[in-house]
Design brief:
Blueprint (H helix, E strand, L loop, with lengths): L13 H4 L5 E4 H8 L13 E7 L4 E3 L7 E7 L2 E6 L5 E5 L6 E2 L12 E4 L3 E7 H10 L1 H27 L2 H18 L6 E3 L4 H8 L3 H13 L3 E4 L2 E4 L2 H9 L1 H10 L29
Antiparallel strand pairs: 1-2, 2-9, 3-8, 4-7, 4-9, 5-6, 5-8, 10-12, 11-12
Helix pairs in contact: 3-4, 5-7, 5-8, 6-7, 8-9
């Protein structure tokens, strides 16, 4: 079973920046996207937010941009990353439907990350000044902003834990389990899905080089935990994937079972075949 991409709708001060307006959403729709109980009664019911459409590869936010807006993904998917002075890139998220983009810009008024659409996508545009005005006038809306920032902190903590404590296989397993849960929550198949990001994108996110990502995917496949066909992934044994993340001894046992113990097992696992040029049909992750 393959997941179908949802469709949906743009304003980043379009008159000034030449970006097209596609439609609007009201407060109730925004609350549904964010899965937060937004106040949308009384005068708030009449408030709307513009939406913006992006094509695959189009940049939504550049590092150094002034933080004029936050964004909520309506459909599609993005990749967000930061780079240091040497050009070293670290992926920070793969936002998809319901995720907020651009919160980093609230720290000092400028964005630190680059956010790029992985496919045809659509976002709700939340102008920063408008959010500030609403928060001052409506305490419930201020609480919304606090919860959005809290979500970002929780996500960053999870990424730091993954990079700091998990082995390569466990990092990939954690990512795939999380992605499966997100697809299921959105009404797609959580068992078989396509990855929109490249292996290089995935490596930047997981702190692994592209060769290790490829070999780990092959290794998990050989252990019977997943099946990989180009960018399509099937979760075969979700229970063991979860156990691998929670308990390092499970990974050690699996390595022994496969006869690949020791620190250099990766060099002995054949890499997967190069990624297909055929684009997958569904959206992918945060």
């Amino acid at each position: 079973m393959k997941s179908e991409a949802r469709s949906g709708g743009p304003d980043h001060e379009p008159a000034a920046l030449g970006q097209p307006v596609h439609g609007t959403v009201d407060m109730e729709t925004l609350g549904s996207l964010l899965e937060l109980p937004l106040p949308f009664e009384g005068d708030l019911a009449a408030i709307t937010f513009s939406t913006r459409a992006l094509q695959e590869g189009e940049v939504l936010i550049r590092s150094g941009d002034e933080c004029r807006n936050l964004y909520v993904v309506r459909f599609g998917s993005f990749k967000t990353c930061v780079a240091d002075a040497t050009g070293t890139t670290q992926g920070t998220a793969f936002p998809m439907r319901g995720d907020t983009i651009g919160v980093d810009g609230l720290a000092n008024g400028r964005h630190n990350c680059v956010t790029t659409a992985l496919e045809r996508s659509d976002v709700v545009v939340l102008p920063a000044r408008k959010l500030t005005s609403l928060a001052l006038a409506h305490p419930a809306f201020a609480n919304l902003l606090h919860r959005l920032m809290g979500r970002e902190i929780v996500r960053d903590q999870a990424l730091m834990f993954m990079l700091g404590s998990l082995a390569a296989e466990a990092r990939v397993a954690a990512f795939l389990v999380d992605l499966s849960e997100r697809f299921t929550k959105l009404g797609y198949s959580g068992r078989v899905f396509n990855l929109r990001m490249t292996r290089q994108d995935l490596g930047h996110y997981l702190g692994l080089n592209i060769e290790t990502v490829s070999r780990v995917m092959s290794h998990l496949s050989q252990m019977g935990l997943i099946a990989v066909r180009h960018r399509e992934v099937e979760i075969v044994d979700e229970t063991t994937l979860r156990r691998m993340v929670a308990d390092p001894s499970v990974l050690h046992s699996l390595r022994e079972r496969c006869g690949r113990t020791g620190r250099n097992w990766e060099s002995r696992v054949p890499a997967l075949q190069p990624e297909s040029d055929v684009r997958p049909r569904n959206l992918a992750v945060r």
